[in-house]
Write a structure and sequence with these properties.
single chain, alpha/beta, 6-stranded mixed beta sheet, 14% strand
Length: 339
């Protein structure tokens, strides 16, 4: 048995005695899954996937979900590469050099309007041969995305609703979002999600860019005086991947159970996240956080200033031999098809 199964913090699903008996007869398969933080909207599809797979295999295929007990969040892709665990979640912006193809999904102002569109563009990019090959370098197979809304920032002190007020602003933002803020004079830092609250509390950063669930889960909203309701510069992309060797070692039945549960797991995620968004106004009022609206003219100015970030990404990725323009165009064509 893997030593990782003995680590604290691993939550194992409990099944009926009958299901366990079936599992024993069929030969049980257990996967370790490396997440971080705590159970939240961002991880509900993984939780649902584990539930569905266990149900569909009569308890013969189970997943032990660990929130930080197996690896640090920035090291999950490395853990997958060496087979330290079978499944993991990570965010592209934590190490863009390790997964350059999917960083196209973190470029600012892509035009994604909702979570369904985020799922569609992620799936399209994940299926591209260049992306498949990119992640295969880490022995990783892309399984599903973790769709998040457009990011917005919380801050302390006086609200910032003009780009000129962003100059010198220290903001927790990764990947393409960090580049976008840098373009308007802010100073981005890529502290991890779990470090964000302390960074804001101690003044390491002035503001934090997150989706709603993360502001709530990592308690940055508890420190906030204000929140931008419509800045919407983009989001980060956080795939769930599996170790290729482990995936290929599954029986046909178990692989079908895993693959066949993905759509339902994503649907569950979307429904759950929708409930959180519906409560967001209530949460802001409860915590006495002021909503800040950025004017249309300032937003248009932000888009114009951030435009070169996209062009620079295409140039840099093309220089590495990647089909950068093709990947970017794939995102745009997928959005057109969705509409």
């Amino acid at each position: 048995m893997s030593p990782f199964k003995k680590l604290s913090g691993v939550r194992t699903a409990v099944f009926t005695a009958a299901a366990l008996a079936i599992a024993g007869e069929a030969g049980a398969v257990e996967w370790n899954v490396s997440l971080w933080g705590k159970r939240r909207a961002f991880t509900e599809h993984v939780e649902k996937l584990a539930e569905l797979v266990a149900e569909r295999t009569g308890g013969a295929f189970t997943m032990n979900i660990s929130y930080g007990g197996l690896s640090k969040n920035r090291e999950n892709l490395d853990g997958i590469s060496v087979g330290a665990f079978e499944m993991a979640q990570f965010c592209a912006g934590y190490h863009g050099d390790k997964n350059p193809t999917i960083t196209v999904l973190e470029l600012p102002f892509l035009g994604v309007m909702n979570l369904e569109e985020e799922v569609a563009v992620s799936n399209a990019v994940y299926a591209h041969p260049a992306t498949v090959a990119d992640l295969a370098r880490w022995n990783a197979r892309l399984l599903m995305t973790s769709p998040m809304p457009q990011y917005n920032i919380v801050g302390t002190g006086d609200p910032r609703d003009e780009l000129d007020e962003f100059k010198g602003m220290r903001v927790r933002a990764t990947g393409g979002l960090g580049k976008a803020f840098e373009a308007v004079g802010a100073v981005p830092t890529s502290v991890t999600a779990t470090e964000a609250q302390q960074a804001l509390e101690t003044g390491v950063v002035d503001t934090v860019a997150f989706a709603q669930h993360a502001h709530l889960s990592f308690q940055t909203i508890d420190l906030a005086d204000w929140w931008t309701e419509n800045l919407n510069p983009g989001t980060v992309n956080c795939p769930v991947v599996v170790n290729i060797d482990s995936y290929e070692a599954l029986s046909d039945e178990h692989r079908a159970a895993l693959d066949g549960s993905i759509d339902e797991a994503i649907a569950h995620y979307l429904a759950n996240y929708g409930e959180l968004l519906a409560k967001w106004e209530e949460i802001l009022a409860e915590k006495n956080v002021q909503k800040v609206t950025i004017s249309d003219s300032e937003l248009e100015r932000f888009r114009e200033v951030a435009g070169p970030v996209r062009d620079a990404w295409i140039e840099a990725m093309s220089a590495q031999g990647l089909p950068a323009r093709e990947l970017y165009d794939l995102v745009q064509s997928t959005l057109q098809e969705m509409r």
